[in-house]
Amino acid sequence: MYSDEERIKYLKNTSRELKAPGDLQPLIDLLGGSRVVLLGEATHGTHEYYTWRADISKRLIRDHGFNCIAVEGDWPDFYRVNRFVKHYGDSHPTAASVLKEFNRWPTWMWANWEMEALISWLREYNQPLPSRQRVGIYGLDVYSLWESMEAILSYLRAHDPGLLPAAKRAVSCFEPYGDEMGMAYARSLKGILPQGCEQEVVHLLKGITHRAQTYNTDLEASLNMEQNAHVARNAEAYYRAMVYVDQSSWNIRDHHMMDTLKRLLHFYGPASRVIVWEHNTHVGDARATDMADEGTVNLGQLVREQLPGHSPKIVGFGSYHGRVLAGSEWGAPTRNMRLPAAASGSWEHLLHATGKGNQLVLMQELAAEACFQRRIPQRAVGVVYHPRIEHFGNYVPSVLPERYDAFIHIDRTEGLHAMEVYADQRQLPGTYPWSY
Fold this sequence. Notes:
Blueprint: H1 4-14, E1 16-17, H2 25-31, E2 36-39, H3 47-64, E3 68-74, H4 75-85, H5 95-99, H6 113-126, E4 136-141, H7 145-159, H8 164-174, H9 181-188, H10 198-211, H11 221-241, H12 248-268, E5 274-277, H13 280-283, H14 299-306, E6 313-326, E7 335-339, H15 347-353, E8 359-362, E9 376-379, E10 395-398, H16 400-403, E11 406-413
Parallel strand pairs: 2-5, 2-6, 3-4, 3-5, 6-11
Antiparallel strand pairs: 1-8, 6-7, 8-11, 9-10
Helix pairs in contact: 7-8, 7-11, 8-10, 9-11, 10-11, 11-12
C-alpha cells in the first residue's frame, strides 16, 4: 500500500507551477499535434476553468490551426453564437446579446462574462479571415428537442415545404407535452411503455438526411438542418430511456455528443481540428473510473476508441477550495457557494499538499509510478450542489494517468460571473443523479 506522503513527494517533484499563460507551453506542445483536444472542468461554475480553457483554446486556434470549439451546450443556442462569431448577416449585435438568449436553466453555465470575453475574441479573430476559414463554436448536447423541432419547421416553411408535413406530424406528436416536453414525455412513457414519437422523428430524420445537400442557402444551412434532425431523434431516445433506472440515457447522450463531434470533423474537412469543452465526467476516459463498473461510457472513452488516428488528448481540471456557482436544486436560484477543502486523500488534496499552488501535471510523467496506478478520488461538482454533504457523493474514483493526458489544478477558485438572464423554468433539461 502506497502512502499519501509518497504521492505528494512525487507530485511536488514533477508538477509544474502555473502562474501565467506562458506557463502553459509544455501543455501546448503536448496538445498541438492532436486533431481533437478535450478540455474538462470539475464544476460547471468556476471562473478559472473557463479562463484557463480560453487561454488554451486561443493558443491552439492561433498557433496550431484549430478551427472549431464544441461545448456541453445545446445546438440551437450555440448555433446562434456560431453565426455571431462568424459574422453572418442575421446574427446578434454583441456577444452579450447573443449569450442572453440562453433561457434553459442553468443559464449561467454559458451566459456569463467569461464566455462573453471568449466569444468577443473569436468574432474579432474571425473578422479578417475568408468565410470558409472562420473558427466556429457549436453545442454537442441532446436536450434541445423542442428548440430543434422549431428550427426545422422554420427552415422548411421557407425552403422545403414538401417535407413540412413530416415535420408537422413529429411536432404534433410531442405537442401534448407542452414546453416541458422532454420530462413530461419521459413521464408519459412509464408503465405501459408505448412506442411514443419514435417513428415520427426517425421518418423526419431520414427525409432531412436524404435532402440535406439541397439546403444550401448558406455555408452551414445543411449542417444545421441535419444536426437539428439528429438532436430530435436522439433527444426522443434519451427521454424514452429515462423510463429505465440504469445508465442508458447517459450513454445515449454521450454517443450523441460523439456523433456530433464526428459530424463537425467531417464538415470542416481534412484539416479539421476541434477543441471540446465539457465536464470531466464526460471528457475523462470512463474506463479509468468507477463509471465503467456500471456500464457507463463517455465522450473521452469514445474518442479514444473511435478516433485513435486523430491523436486525441484529454486535459482534466480540478481545485482544492474556494467558491463555485451552482443551485441547491434543479431550477433553483443561482448561488455563489463555498467550495470546501477537498477530502483527505483525494487528488485535489494531494496537489494542494505539495504547496505549489496552481499546477500543471503531465500524466506521462506519472504513468510509470505504481503509486498512481490505483483509483484515487477526484472531485466532481454538478450544476446542483450541496457543500455540506459533498464528501458523500462528489468524488469519482479515478486512475488519473489513464483518465487524462494532463491535469490542471487550481488551488483556490472563484465562481463564474453570471449575466442576468431569465431562466424559463419549464425548459429544464433531463436530470441525472449526479447532475453533470
